[in-house]
Design a protein that fits this description.
Elements: E1 4-6, E2 19-21, E3 24-28, E4 44-48, E5 51-53, H1 60-70, H2 75-79, E6 81-85, E7 105-109, H3 136-146, H4 153-161, E8 189-190, E9 194-195, E10 225-231, H5 239-251, E11 254-257, E12 277-279, E13 288-289, E14 293-295
Parallel strand pairs: 10-13
Antiparallel strand pairs: 1-2, 2-5, 3-4, 5-14, 6-7, 8-9, 10-11, 11-12
Length: 297
């Protein structure tokens, strides 16, 4: 079993708040996949080297420090647009083109990490929220500046379990509902028409919202999808898996974990630890963020 302690002090730029893990074997994936086409299974043992992970997703405020120090321009800024959930836009902008083919996304000119809903919106009132509209390229660049890197899928998944090695969610197996049990920031109501906000949030939440898991890590599911370092591949010999892997290889798709504030069991049941998705490394949207991992000697 891997051991974990909170790291004290700062070494080589590693934030003092990180949680560190000793190397060892970790069991990831599941033998009871809910969405087998996503490659959630089978469960398998993976050997992990010693690593540390931030208990919080990278905030908009920390990302702003990076931009101010380096002059970095994100993929969304260079492209000129990013995908925004339609309900967050003024009525006049809700009829713009769908960004991804999903009717609830809008291709919004000027949307970026500092203007999450496009021109006229600002990140200034949510600097403690996870930065969004960041691609995997952007996240990797931030990691280099901060002295860290993106976690591997195996590192992310092991850390998310919080010591509950067979648990479905970071807190255990109890399913979130739309009424009384909301341990993470996901959708409540009928997607995409009605979000009751029973968990207190319609969009992103502060990175320290909700209770941490057993390792002291916050929002490992819900809030925002989190980029990982791995290429997105499905471990299966089926024809469908081969075709999806071929498409993912051509797009250079990378792994995303954790689901987001737009997930609901009826639509995107991917706020489970074993759940996963993938997207091209230059993809950005209003529900994509990341957290950092760090190598340990």
């Amino acid at each position: 079993m891997l051991r974990t302690t909170h790291r004290q002090g700062v070494s080589s730029g590693v934030p003092c708040r990180v949680v560190k893990f000793a190397g060892g074997n970790a069991r990831i994936g599941t033998d009871r996949p809910v969405l087998p086409a996503d490659g959630e299974g089978p469960a398998r043992l993976v050997r992990l080297k010693p690593f540390a992970i931030d208990p919080f997703a990278v905030t908009a405020g920390w990302f702003r420090e990076f931009v101010n120090a380096t002059g970095y321009r994100t993929d969304a800024e260079q492209l000129g647009w990013s995908a925004v959930f339609f309900a967050f836009l003024p009525e006049a902008l809700r009829n713009t083109a769908s960004a991804t083919g999903a009717s609830w996304w809008r291709k919004t000119q000027g949307a970026s990490w500092k203007h999450p809903e496009g021109p006229g919106s600002s990140v200034e009132d949510r600097l403690d929220h996870p930065v969004v509209h960041v691609s995997q390229n952007d996240a990797a660049a931030f990691g280099v500046w901060a002295g860290g890197r993106l976690p591997t899928e195996a590192e992310w998944e092991y850390a998310a379990r919080g010591g509950r090695h067979e648990a479905i969610f970071p807190w255990g197996d109890q399913e979130p509902d739309d009424v009384s049990f909301q341990p993470c920031n996901i959708w409540q109501g009928t997607f995409p028409a009605l979000n009751t906000g029973a968990d207190g949030f319609l969009g992103t939440a502060p990175v320290a919202a909700f209770e941490p898991n057993g390792y002291g890590l916050y929002n490992m599911v819900g809030n925002t999808w989190e980029w990982c370092a791995d290429a997105f591949r499905i471990q299966s010999v089926s024809r469908a898996a081969r075709e999806r892997n071929r498409a993912a290889r051509l797009a250079r798709d990378r792994v995303m974990k954790g689901g987001s504030y737009l997930c609901h069991r009826s639509y995107c049941y991917r706020y489970r630890i074993a759940a996963r998705s993938g997207a091209a490394p230059d993809t950005s949207a209003g529900h994509l963020g990341f957290r950092l991992a760090f190598d340990l000697a």
